[in-house]
Every structure is written in C-alpha cells, then in structure tokens.
Amino acid sequence: MNSLHLNYRALVVGSSGSIGKAFLRALQLDSNCAEALELSRETSPAFDLRNEQTIEEALAPVKGSGNFDLIIDATGALMISGHGPEKSLQAIKASTLSESLWINCIGPSVMLKNLAPVLGKSRCIYAKLSARVGSISDNKLGGWYSYRSSKAAFNMILQTAAIEHNRKNPNAVFVALQPGTVASPLSAPFVDASKTLTPEDSVSQMLSAIDLLKPTNGAHFIDYRGHPIAW
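Now predict its structure.
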C-alpha cells in the first residue's frame, strides 16, 4: 500500500474466511505495514455478528491499541442456516431474511460504529467486502432476495457513515468492494470453479484498486479491478 504512510497499521476483521486470510497474508508481507492485526470467530475473544455485545467485547483490546490506517471488514455470508439464496419471492422466510440482515448488515454496522473512531487522522481507508448483487441499479436477474437486500442495506450505512466521517477527516476513504467470484466455500455451490479467482489474486487486485482511490464526499463502490459499480 503506497498511498498510506510508512509503517502504517492495519486490521482485518473476518480473517478466518478465504478472502480475509488472503488479506491478512498480503498485509503481513507488505514491507510498508508495521502491524497487521486480525479478528475473527477463531480469535479470542471471538465475536458473533448476530450479537452486539460479543462484537464490542472483541473490539475492546483492538480499540485500545491505537489508530489504524487501513481497516478491512471481510465478514459476510451467502448461505444462511444451510439455506442458499432464494430464487423466488415465495421462497422468502422471515428467519432467513433476519439472519442475513444481521450477518451482512447489522453486525458489520456495529463493527463500523466501533472502528470508525480509531481510523487514522491523515489518509486512511475503511474497506468492506460487498457484492455486485447489492447494487439496486444493477439488478437485472432478480432473485437472491435476502442477500441482495442485506448487502444493499449495508451499502447505505457505509455511504452515510462516509459522509459523516469525511466532515471530520476529508482524507478518509470508505469503500464497498466486490471481490469478483472467488474460489471459496461460499461460492462453491453456485459457480464453476474454473471461472473463479483465487483469493490471493482477488486480494492483490483489490489492494491495488483501493490504493488508488481518492477521498470523496461519501463512499466508493468498486469491483476488484477498481471499476465503479452503480449504487
């Protein structure tokens, strides 16, 4: 990351997932990165995105360690309680929709609320894994009600938080990232493995893309190549 100052500090939330692990490895190998911390369901104290108290308990020692120049939230889930994305309106279940909103929007919003105050005071970046299906404008196929809705909802939270935070630090960058179709347990049931990116390739391109982003009054929404996605 060349746009951040030398010896920048980074945090990866969701480091137990395929993409989160790749982010953590890439940052640990970056000679400009002085420290890359991680949080996941496997670190201690662990957190549950459906439980605000566990999130705040897991974040307490991290928040007390100082400011971060790069925060990446790689959490999220497509399969909910063993159920895949809905193909029709009639397939919607309140319990599945509620859990998807907790995992993909409410929990990450609690993360954002707690971590925005420890972003650096100069150029800093808050990046959250999103999905192209979270774009309302780009919805041409329909289906996937819960996942689409939860991702679109968090995109709004991120956009709104970015506008507020940019008043305090106009050098802060907030970005929703579409990682491409990455080979992982999440994508395996839905795509041909031959058409996927490796986590390492996706992360390498995402880091290059966010390194080039300029601060703006609000958040960016881009794919792994740095191409803008319509909200």
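The helical segments are 18-28, 52-63, 94-115, 145-168, 199-211.
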